[in-house]
Every structure is written in structure tokens, then in C-alpha cells.
């Protein structure tokens, strides 16, 4: 069923703010219609979240203003060209923004139909906050997305169905690990205990960690990759995972169907809940400076990932008794050291929220060390890669939903 352009347009008024549900299950069949509405509606504002894959049918220049708080890989060119403004905000703070200066009038979202009513589909993320702030839902009903959201159904009176689709959510690209990443994960694995509660970031690092695990763990993370289904098959998954995004393929979507694994960011990224018991947060970085400060936002030349949930999980793990905030990063990227004297961009995660930094060459355990000792430990962990000076910056991807 094609999108009902008239029904969609009826929800939008001049000066409205439109938010589009994010992640791999974003309602892309509405992109052309939303662009057309923006071209013919004065003062329309656009709010975007995590966009992991570029959407050529959505033209941000058609809107009077376009902003994102987690650009991901899909919005890099638009942010670099100034078509979309990137907001430096942790993912856990997005509900506050959606109740304040970014309050949306309309939320375009993908939903699934259940006997009890409509639920969000491949991701929940910040979308409940948008509804709580007053947004009406322009819903695309998916017949191919999994039913895996926890909590109450969406309020029926706030939902207007504007389309249906048989297209499944997009798949997370498979990124084979490089040999240096395999060596890094070998150094990291001993820090994850049996029964531990584990958070991982997107991409090859998280997938490799889960693949190399030999002890049972609980998953409490911003996203779920395909490797979670592998863990379950190997009898190494304890309980029901907790996440707010799915980042996998058909196998993951089949496995989660019927399981209540997806929750809103108010739950998944809540620092009190996360730190109430030992949490092992494993995240990466674009750069680490010699004080142990972390940059995940991007390089001097461009935003490449975004801040996302990196500081939420790092801070929670650092304060959880028995847990660890772990930064795992290879010592070089494209021939340049990832340890720098000065970060290319502002600090994303402060050094006091980092317990351990792991590379393929070694481990810097920063707990209980003063500044000078931390610097010495970090330099040792980088080994032959050394410290990159202030005249060059890497280009890599990061960001933790």
C-alpha cells in the first residue's frame, strides 16, 4: 500500500515540527512525501535521531530547519554540508529535548499491529517521549517487522495510519573484524565475568566480543546485534536482553519476535537503573587523549558518529560497584595513532568515567591512578603506535546508541 499523502499532509501545519523515527526500521516509505510536504509548507522543522543508512528520498534542504542528535553513518554528508545541524547531546537526554525546544507536533514512525493495539517495531528509542510531549503519530504499519517491544501499546487516539509495508527493516552491514581487532578482543574478554551484565556498541567490536565469549552473560545495551542470537544458540545468554534498537538481520528479527526486548531510552539509558548492579560497558572511540578523555563525535574535519549513549553507559558502568567502563580501541586507524595529545573535538566521555582502556598491544587499567600514571599506562598500551601529534586526525566511525 503506497503512503496516503493526503492523510500525512493533514497532520502537518505551517511551522510544525516533524520527528522521524530512527534506526534501521525508520519509515522510509514516507520520505518522498515528507519532502514534498516540506517544499509546500512554510516553516516546517525536521528532527532526526540515529540514521545508520543514508536516505536519498529525504531532502533536509526542503525544511526550514533540520537537526539531529545522533547522525550516525547516514547523515555524515548532510551534516558536513551544513544541511542538518548536529546537536551534541547524550542519547539519554533526548526525552528532555523532545519535551522542550525540539517538541514535535508529528512523529513519523513504523509500527506493528498486535491484538492489543499498535506497538513500535524494530526500535523504540525516544519515540514514546515524542508522543508524551504531544506528537501525533503518522504510522506506517509493517507486516515484516518483529513484534518485540515491551510496555503498553500506543494510544489509539494519537495514531493515524498513513501507509503499510511488506518491506522488512534494513539490515546492519556485516563488518568482518580485522586481525588487530581480534587481538584486542582477546585482551578484553577476561574482564567479562560469568553472569555479567554487558553493554556493547555497534559494529565489528561488539559482534566480535559476543562471538568470542565463553561464559554466560546478560545483555543490557542500547542495541542488539545478530550475535545475540548466536549467544542464545550457544546457551550463553541469561534472561531476556534489554535494548532500544535492533541492529542485525533476518536471523535476529526472527529470534526476538515474541520476546519483549525493546524498551524506551528512559529505561535503557537510565543511569540509576544501569548502575544499580555491576555493569560491564564495552565501547570504542575515535580518539583517546593522554589523559584518558574520549572523543566519539568525529574528527577535526567532520562529525562521523555522534555522541549517542556512549557517556550514558560509561558513566553508569564507572559508578557501578563491581562493574567496569571499558574503552576498546585499536592503536591505529588508517596508519595513524588513535592516542593523541589533544582531541580533535570536544570531550564526549570524560576520563573519570573510564576504568580500563584495551588495545591490541596492551591494557591500561586507569583505576586508582593519578594523572601522570594514567598517561604512562596509556602510552604503554599503545606501544609502538605512539602518540599522534595535533597536526593529523583519523577518520573512523563510532557512536553508541
UniProtKB/TrEMBL annotation:
<dbReference type="InterPro" id="IPR037171">
    <property type="entry name" value="NagB/RpiA_transferase-like"/>
</dbReference>
<dbReference type="InterPro" id="IPR026888">
    <property type="entry name" value="AcetylCoA_hyd_C"/>
</dbReference>
<dbReference type="InterPro" id="IPR038460">
    <property type="entry name" value="AcetylCoA_hyd_C_sf"/>
</dbReference>
<feature type="domain" description="Acetyl-CoA hydrolase/transferase C-terminal">
    <location>
        <begin position="261"/>
        <end position="378"/>
    </location>
</feature>
<dbReference type="GO" id="GO:0016787">
    <property type="term" value="F:hydrolase activity"/>
</dbReference>
<keyword id="KW-0378">Hydrolase</keyword>
<dbReference type="Pfam" id="PF13336">
    <property type="entry name" value="AcetylCoA_hyd_C"/>
</dbReference>
<dbReference type="InterPro" id="IPR046433">
    <property type="entry name" value="ActCoA_hydro"/>
</dbReference>
<protein>
    <submittedName>
        <fullName>Acetyl-CoA hydrolase/transferase C-terminal domain-containing protein</fullName>
    </submittedName>
</protein>
Amino acid at each position: 500500500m503506497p503512503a496516503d499523502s493526503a492523510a500525512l499532509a493533514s497532520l502537518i501545519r505551517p511551522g510544525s515540527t516533524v520527528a522521524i523515527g530512527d534506526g534501521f526500521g525508520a519509515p522510509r516509505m514516507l520520505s518522498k512525501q515528507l519532502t514534498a510536504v516540506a517544499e509546500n509548507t512554510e516553516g516546517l522543522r525536521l528532527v532526526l535521531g540515529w540514521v545508520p543508512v543514508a536516505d536519498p528520498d529525504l531532502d533536509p534542504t526542503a525544511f526550514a530547519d533540520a537537526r539531529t542528535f545522533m547522525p550516525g553513518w547516514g547523515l555524515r554528508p548532510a551534516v558536513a554540508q551544513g544541511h542538518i545541524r548536529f546537536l551534541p547531546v547524550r542519547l539519554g537526554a533526548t526525552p528532555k529535548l523532545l519535551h522542550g525546544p525540539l517538541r514535535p507536533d508529528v512523529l513519523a514512525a513504523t509500527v506493528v499491529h498486535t491484538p492489543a493495539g499498535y506497538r513500535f517495531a524494530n526500535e523504540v528509542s525516544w519515540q514514546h517521549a515524542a508522543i508524551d510531549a504531544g506528537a501525533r503519530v503518522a504510522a506506517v504499519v509493517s507486516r515484516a517487522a518483529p513484534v518485540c517491544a515491551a510496555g503498553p501499546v500506543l494510544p489509539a487516539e494519537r495514531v493515524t495510519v498513513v501507509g503499510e509495508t511488506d518491506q522488512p527493516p534494513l539490515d546492519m552491514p556485516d563488518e568482518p573484524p580485522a586481525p588487530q581487532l581480534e587481538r584486542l578482543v582477546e585482551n578484553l574478554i577476561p574482564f567479562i565475568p560469568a553472569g555479567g551484565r554487558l553493554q556493547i556498541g555497534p559494529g565489528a567490536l561488539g559482534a566480535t566480543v559476543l562471538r568470542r565469549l565463553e561464559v554466560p552473560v546478560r545483555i543490557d545495551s542500547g542495541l542488539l546485534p545478530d550475535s545475540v542470537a548466536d549467544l542464545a544458540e550457544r546457551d550463553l545468554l541469561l534472561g531476556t536482553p534489554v535494548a532500544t534498537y535492533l541492529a542485525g538481520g533476518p536471523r535476529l528479527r526472527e529470534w526476538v519476535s515474541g520476546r519483549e526486548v525493546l524498551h524506551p531510552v528512559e529505561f535503557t539509558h537510565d543511569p540509576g537503573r544501569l548502575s544499580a548492579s555491576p555493569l560491564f560497558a564495552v565501547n570504542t572511540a575515535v580518539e583517546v587523549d593522554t589523559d584518558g578523555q574520549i572523543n566519539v563525535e568525529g574528527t577535526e574535519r567532520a562529525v562521523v558518529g555522534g555522541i549517542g549513549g556512549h557517556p550514558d553507559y560509561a558513566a553508569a558502568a564507572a559508578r557501578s560497584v563491581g562493574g567496569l567502563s571499558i574503552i576498546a580501541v585499536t592503536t591505529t586507524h588508517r596508519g595513524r595513532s588513535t592516542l593523541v595529545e589533544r582531541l580533535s573535538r570536544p570531550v564526549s566521555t570524560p576520563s573519570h568515567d573510564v576504568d580500563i582502556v584495551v588495545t591490541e598491544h596492551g591494557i591500561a587499567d586507569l583505576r586508582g591512578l593519578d594523572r601522570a600514571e594514567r598517561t604512562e599506562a596509556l602510552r604503554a598500551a599503545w606501544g609502538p603506535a605512539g602518540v599522534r601529534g595535533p597536526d593529523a586526525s583519523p577518520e573512523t566511525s563510532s557512536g553508541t546508541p
